[in-house]
């Protein structure tokens, strides 16, 4: 492992200290991620005025390619009943996954050594957390004392601010607008012979153009 690009959700902050010392407040710069090399330190300040449970984690590329992958196919909302019966004929015990996201993977725990921090588990108020061992949580609450380091528990979201599955009437699909279809009969093709000089709009050779290319050794 080399550097750690540390990213924090919910806030913009100011980098206030580096290995070279404290940064002049007038020179502090705004960030949402800080890149720390091996042995480096960075300190940042922010005004805790947005209550919530905010994730702070590493934006290393191998994390985004694994559990935070965005380039894999999604099966959210897909019913696999017919597919499961076919696959189990070839692979008994096959378990369909992904119809409700991959959060269920966080609950599939295997025994680990006692001094091991699991990377793909953990539970929160909404169920298992896929990235449970790969991030920390900054808990911001109103009215906390300066010396109060007790766990305030899960953040209580204001009513109407939490996403939920819509189970009402099916929404109408947006109308599709199709543009004009290409007409292959109108397409024109021009084949250029690289051995001949380039021609201008008037059909005459361009100044300095040589047969066989623009370089004298061609």
Summarize the structure.
A hairpin with a 2-residue loop joins strand 2 and strand 3. The protein has 218 residues and is mainly β. The C terminus is likely disordered.
H/I helix tally: 2
State the helicity in percent bands: under 10%
Main sheet: strands, sense, barrel:
4 strands, antiparallel
Strand content: 15-25%
In N-to-C order, the SSE pattern is EEEEEEEHHEEE
In whole angstroms, the N-to-C terminal distance is 49 Å
* β-strand number: 10
The mean pLDDT is 80
Strand order of the largest sheet: 5-1-7-10
Unreliable runs: 212-218
The structure class reads mainly beta
Descriptive keywords:
218 residues; mainly beta; four-stranded antiparallel β-sheet; 10 strands; 7% helix; extended; disordered C terminus
Overview of this structure, please?
By secondary structure, the chain is mainly beta. Among the domains are: 1-50, no CATH class; 70-140, no CATH class. Helices cover 7% and strands 18% of the residues. The chain has a 4-stranded antiparallel β-sheet, with no helix packed on it. Strands 2, 3, 4 and 6 form a 4-stranded antiparallel β-sheet that branches.
List the helices and strands and how they pair.
Layout: E1 4-8, E2 13-18, E3 21-22, E4 30-31, E5 33-36, E6 43-45, E7 52-58, H1 61-65, H2 81-90, E8 123-124, E9 127-128, E10 135-140
Antiparallel strand pairs: 1-5, 1-7, 2-3, 2-4, 2-6, 7-10, 8-9
């Amino acid at each position: 492992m080399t550097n750690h690009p540390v990213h924090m959700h919910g806030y913009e902050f100011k980098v206030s200290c580096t290995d070279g010392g404290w940064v002049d407040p007038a020179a502090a710069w705004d960030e949402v991620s800080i890149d720390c090399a091996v042995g480096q330190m960075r300190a940042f300040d922010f005004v805790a005025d947005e209550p919530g449970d905010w994730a702070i984690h590493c934006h290393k590329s191998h994390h985004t390619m694994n559990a935070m992958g965005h380039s894999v196919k999604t099966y959210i909302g897909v019913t696999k009943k017919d597919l499961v019966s076919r696959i189990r004929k070839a692979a008994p015990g096959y378990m369909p996954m992904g119809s409700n996201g991959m959060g269920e993977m966080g609950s599939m725990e295997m025994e680990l050594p006692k001094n091991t921090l699991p990377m793909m588990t953990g539970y929160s108020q909404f169920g298992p957390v896929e990235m449970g061992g790969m991030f920390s949580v900054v808990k911001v609450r109103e009215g906390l004392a300066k010396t109060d380091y007790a766990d305030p528990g899960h953040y209580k979201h204001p009513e109407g601010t939490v996403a939920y599955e819509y189970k009402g009437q099916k929404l109408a699909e947006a109308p599709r607008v199709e543009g004009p279809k290409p007409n292959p009969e109108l397409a024109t093709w021009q084949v250029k012979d690289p051995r001949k000089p380039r021609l201008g709009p008037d059909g005459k050779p361009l100044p300095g153009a040589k047969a066989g290319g623009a370089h004298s050794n061609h």
